[in-house]
Design a protein that fits this description.
Elements: H1 14-33, H2 38-42, H3 53-72, H4 89-92, H5 99-118, E1 125-128, E2 131-134, H6 135-161
Antiparallel strand pairs: 1-2
Helix pairs in contact: 1-3, 1-6, 3-5, 3-6
Length: about 170
């Protein structure tokens, strides 16, 4: 398993530290999925859960899209993966989903998020369903979201082939 992650710095300004922690967690999910087949990525955790590594990648693509493009940048764009019909479609509909499409979409949303994030101050205020939230809060939330799901990814990967690690 190739691991190209750069450890977050122990010192630095707030934007640098937050940005590097988010990149670390993005990279962690990629590492957890590395080297697996599409069928392995689709393997579910345990019934009744629909959790899978492919579902996590699809979910995080959607999360990146919503928080950076819709909330922070104010873009009027559709939700991914038919989530308007099934809020859990990112997890539920992986049996025939393309792993290549999911990873390409995730990487595209990450790239767009990086551009949007770089263009906004940490104090920029966004509207989330009628409530104000700052760019800073969004970055912290994204770190939390990835950290939580990377814990799931750890367990899923260990179940698939026994691989463990940070």
């Amino acid at each position: 398993m190739t691991d190209n992650r750069v450890p977050p710095p122990l010192t630095g300004d707030e934007r640098t530290v937050l940005g590097n922690w988010l990149e670390w967690h993005r990279g962690t999910l990629a590492v957890k999925c590395a080297g697996l087949t599409a069928d392995q990525l689709r393997l579910r955790a345990a019934e009744p859960s629909t959790l899978s590594l492919l579902g996590l990648v699809r979910h995080m693509a959607h999360v990146e899209r919503v928080w950076f493009r819709r909330v922070l940048n104010g873009e009027d764009i559709p939700r991914l993966w038919n989530k308007d019909v099934d809020n859990d479609a990112d997890f539920n509909d992986v049996d025939t989903a393309s792993a290549e499409e999911a990873f390409a979409t995730w990487q595209d949303e990450i790239e767009r998020a990086r551009v949007i994030s770089a263009a906004n101050s940490l104090d920029a205020v966004a509207d989330r369903n009628g409530q104000d939230c700052t760019h800073r809060w969004i970055l912290i939330h994204m770190i939390e979201e990835y950290a939580r799901h990377n814990g799931h990814a750890d367990l899923l990967r260990e179940r698939i082939d026994g691989v463990t690690g940070e």
